[in-house]
C-alpha cells in the first residue's frame, strides 16, 4: 500500500522539480498541440499505470482516496496532461470494473501497467448526452459482431492500444439496445478501421481528440463486456464512480490556480505593500479560497459516501457532477480577476493560469454535462428527501470514516430512500452550535442553514430544480460542518467554514459590512500570506483510521 501512496508523492515531487512539469514546458506543449511525452513517462515511472491496474484487478486493494490523490497530483499543473495520460483510461477501466470478466480486466490492466493509452468511445455527434440515441452498430453474426459507424470527439484514439466501445446491438426496448465492447490492437489494426479528423479545442489543446470509423469490421464474441443489451446499466453504474472522482481530481488543478494567485498577491507590490494590504482584495481572495476548499470538502464527503452508502451513489454522484465543476469554475473566474490583466498574459505563471481557465470547462461537459446531472438528481430527489423517523449520526459518521471494501458490487441504478448524509445535519449543527455558543453571528448563520433545509423540502413539489440546488448546498454545508466539528479543527477552518456557510445560505446578502465575516476573511488571508506552496494542503478533512467519530 505504501508504494501506492508514493505514487502521489512522486508526482507531487515531479510537479515541483521535474523539467517536463515546468510552466515553460507545459505552455510550449499547449501552444504546439504536441503531447508532453517526457511528463507522461515520469507519470509512468511514478507507478500510476500500475496503481490503476491494481485497482482494476482488485478494487479492494487500492482506496478511492489513493486513486484521487494520485490522479489529482497528475492533473495539478496540467489537466490536459492528466486527461491525455489516463483520465479517459480510468473511465474505461470503471466500465470493466463494473462488468468486465477476469480476462478482460487482466488485458486492460496489462495495458495500463505497460504505459499504453486506452480510449473510451461513447460519444457520437448527433446523439450528445442521449445514450439511447447512439447509432454506431454492432450487428450480431456467427462468432461475433460486425462493427459499422463512427464515434467522434474521443480522446487518444490515434494512440490507443485499448478501446471501450458503446454500440447499438439492437433491441425494441431502447434501454436494452446497447452493449459495451473491449477492443485491443488485434481489432483496432484491422482493415476497415480508420481514424477520422482531429477536433481543435479551445482548452486541453494537446489532447488529441478525433473520430474513429469502422466499416464492417468483425470482432469476436469475447470482446463483449458483460451481457448484450446492458451497456446503459453498466454505463450508469460506472458514471457513479467517475462523476464522484473526477471533480475531486480536478480540484487539485483549481488548487494550483490558488497557489499561483497566492504567490502573485504575496509578490506584487503596489502603493508600497503587497496586495494583502488592500481590504477588498483580502475579502475577494478569501472567498475564492473558501470556494476551492469547499469543493474539496464536498468532493471528499461524497467520495466517502460512495463507499459507505453505495445504494445512494446515483444521487450523490449526480450532485457531485452538477454542483462541483461550476463552483470551481466560478472560483477560477474570480481568481483570474484578482490576478488582473496579467492573467491574460501567456507566459509562465500567468500563462499557466490562463491555460487553467481554458482547460477547466472540460470537467463540466466531458462525460455527461452538469445540467444532465442536475436532471438525474431531480429524478432521485424525492427518494433522497424521504424522511426517516430516526437516524444515528454517530454510526453514519463512523461508516464514512471506515473503509468499506464491498461498495462496487453494491452500486445500483435506483437510489435508496432517505439520504443518510442529510440526516447528519441536525447533529452536526448542534455540535457547531455548542462550539460557537458565544458567537451570535454563528448562531444566526446556523439558523439560516436550518431554514435552507426547510426551503429544500418545501420546494420539492413546486420547484424541484431549485430543491436540487438547495440539496447540493446542504450536502456542501454538511461537509463543512464535518470538518469544523472535527477535534483538530483550528481558527482557519472555522474562518473558512463561516465564509462558505454564509455563501451557501445567504447568496443574496452582501457581507461587506459584516465585521465578523470580514475578520474571518482576514484570518484566511493572513494564512495565505504566510504559506508557501499549496495553501489548502493541510486544511482538507482527513478521516482518522478506525476513528469512530469526529468528536
Ligand atoms: C475535450 C473533450 C474530450 C472528450 N473526450 C471524449 C472521450 O474520450 N470519449 C467520449 O465518448 N466522449 C468524449 N467527449 C464527448 C463528451 O463526453 C460529451 O458527451 C459530449 O461533448 C456531449 O456533450 P454536448 O454538450 O455536446 O451534448 P448535448 O447532448 O448536445 O448537450 C447540449 C446541451 O444540452 C444540455 N443537455 C443535454 N441533455 C440534457 C438533459 N437531459 N437535461 C438537461 N440538460 C441537458 C447539455 O448539458 C448541454 O448544455 C469529449 C468532449 C470533449 C469536449
UniProtKB/TrEMBL annotation:
Alphabetical UniProt keywords:
FAD, Flavoprotein, Oxidoreductase
One GO location term (cellular component): cytoplasm
- BP GO annotations: fatty acid beta-oxidation using acyl-CoA dehydrogenase
> Does the UniProt entry include the keyword rRNA-binding?
no
Entries under SUPFAM superfamilies matching the protein: Acyl-CoA dehydrogenase C-terminal domain-like, Acyl-CoA dehydrogenase NM domain-like
- Indicate yes or no for the key word Oxidoreductase: yes
Q: Under the GO molecular function aspect, what terms does this record hold? A: acyl-CoA dehydrogenase activity; flavin adenine dinucleotide binding
**Domain spans labelled Acyl-CoA dehydrogenase/oxidase C-terminal:** 233-367
Q: Identify the domain of life.
A: Bacteria
Residues covered by the Acyl-CoA oxidase/dehydrogenase middle domain: 119-217
**Cofactors:** FAD
- Which InterPro entries does the UniProt entry name for this protein? Acyl-CoA_dehydrogenase (IPR050741), Acyl-CoA_Oxase/DH_mid-dom (IPR006091), Acyl-CoA_Oxase/DH_mid-dom_sf (IPR046373), AcylCo_DH-like_C (IPR036250), AcylCo_DH/oxidase_C (IPR009075), AcylCoA_DH/ox_N_sf (IPR037069), AcylCoA_DH/oxidase_NM_dom_sf (IPR009100)
Which family, according to UniProt?
A: Belongs to the acyl-CoA dehydrogenase family.
Q: Which named protein is this?
A: Acyl-CoA dehydrogenase
Q: Which organism is it from?
A: Shewanella psychrophila
Amino acid at each position: 500500500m505504501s508504494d501506492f501512496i508514493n505514487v502521489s508523492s512522486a508526482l507531487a515531487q515531479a510537479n515541483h522539480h521535474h523539467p517536463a512539469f515546468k510552466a515553460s514546458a507545459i505552455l510550449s506543449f499547449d501552444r504546439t498541440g504536441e503531447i508532453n511525452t517526457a511528463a507522461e513517462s515520469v507519470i509512468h515511472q511514478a507507478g500510476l499505470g500500475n496503481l490503476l491496474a491494481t485497482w482494476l484487478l482488485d478494487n479492494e486493494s487500492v482506496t478511492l482516496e489513493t486513486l484521487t490523490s494520485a490522479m489529482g497530483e497528475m492533473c495539478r499543473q496540467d489537466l490536459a496532461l492528466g486527461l491525455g495520460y489516463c483520465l479517459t483510461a480510468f473511465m474505461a477501466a470503471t466500465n470493466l470494473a463494473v462488468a468486465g470478466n477476469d480476462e478482460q480486466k487482466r488485458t486492460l490492466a496489462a495495458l495500463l501497467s505497460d504505459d499504453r493509452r486506452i480510449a473510451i468511445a461513447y460519444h457520437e455527434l448527433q446523439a450528445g448526452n442521449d445514450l439511447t440515441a447512439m447509432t454506431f452498430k454492432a450487428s450480431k453474426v456467427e462468432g461475433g459482431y460486425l462493427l459499422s459507424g463512427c464515434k467522434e470527439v474521443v480522446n487518444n484514439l490515434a494512440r490507443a492500444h485499448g478501446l471501450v466501445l458503446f454500440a447499438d446491438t439492437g433491441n425494441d426496448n431502447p434501454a436494452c439496445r446497447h452493449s459495451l465492447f473491449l477492443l485491443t490492437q488485434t481489432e483496432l489494426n484491422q482493415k476497415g478501421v480508420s481514424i477520422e479528423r482531429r477536433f481543435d479545442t479551445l482548452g486541453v489543446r494537446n489532447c488529441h481528440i478525433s473520430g474513429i470509423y469502422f466499416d464492417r469490421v468483425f470482432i469476436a464474441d469475447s470482446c463483449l463486456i458483460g451481457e448484450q443489451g446492458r451497456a446503459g446499466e453498466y454505463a450508469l453504474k460506472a458514471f457513479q464512480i467517475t462523476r464522484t472522482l473526477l471533480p475531486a481530481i480536478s480540484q487539485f488543478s483549481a488548487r494550483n490556480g490558488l497557489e499561483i494567485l497566492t504567490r502573485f498577491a504575496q509578490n506584487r507590490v503596489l502603493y508600497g505593500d503587497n496586495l494583502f494590504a488592500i481590504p477588498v482584495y483580502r475579502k475577494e481572495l478569501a472567498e475564492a479560497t473558501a470556494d476551492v476548499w469547499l469543493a474539496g470538502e464536498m468532493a471528499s464527503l461524497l467520495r466517502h459516501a460512495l463507499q459507505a452508502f453505495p445504494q445512494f451513489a446515483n444521487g450523490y454522484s449526480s450532485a457531485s457532477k452538477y454542483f462541483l465543476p461550476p463552483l470551481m469554475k466560478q472560483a477560477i473566474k474570480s481568481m483570474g480577476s484578482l490576478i488582473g490583466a496579467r492573467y491574460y498574459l501567456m507566459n509562465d505563471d500567468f500563462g499557466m493560469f490562463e491555460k487553467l481557465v481554458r482547460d477547466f470547462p472540460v470537467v463540466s461537459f466531458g462525460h455527461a454535462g452538469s445540467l444532465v446531472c442536475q436532471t438525474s438528481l431531480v429524478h432521485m430527489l424525492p427518494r433522497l428527501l424521504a424522511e426517516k423517523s430516526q437516524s444515528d449520526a454517530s454510526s453514519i459518521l463512523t461508516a464514512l470514516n471506515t473503509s468499506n471494501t464491498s461498495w462496487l458490487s453494491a452500486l445500483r441504478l435506483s437510489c435508496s430512500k432517505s439520504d443518510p448524509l442529510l440526516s447528519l445535519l441536525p447533529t452536526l449543527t448542534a455540535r457547531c452550535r455548542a462550539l460557537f455558543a458565544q458567537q451570535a453571528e454563528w448562531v444566526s448563520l446556523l439558523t439560516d442553514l436550518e431554514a435552507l433545509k426547510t426551503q429544500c423540502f418545501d420546494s420539492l413539489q413546486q420547484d424541484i430544480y431549485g430543491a436540487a440546488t438547495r440539496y447540493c448546498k446542504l450536502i456542501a454545508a454538511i461537509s463543512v460542518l464535518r470538518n469544523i466539528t472535527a477535534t483538530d479543527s483550528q481558527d482557519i477552518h472555522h474562518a473558512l467554514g463561516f465564509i462558505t456557510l454564509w455563501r451557501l445560505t445567504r447568496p443574496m446578502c452582501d457581507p461587506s459590512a459584516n465585521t465578523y465575516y470580514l475578520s474571518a476573511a482576514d484570518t484566511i488571508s493572513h494564512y495565505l500570506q504566510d504559506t508557501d506552496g499549496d495553501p489548502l494542503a493541510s486544511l482538507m478533512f482527513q478521516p482518522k483510521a478506525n476513528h469512530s467519530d469526529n468528536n
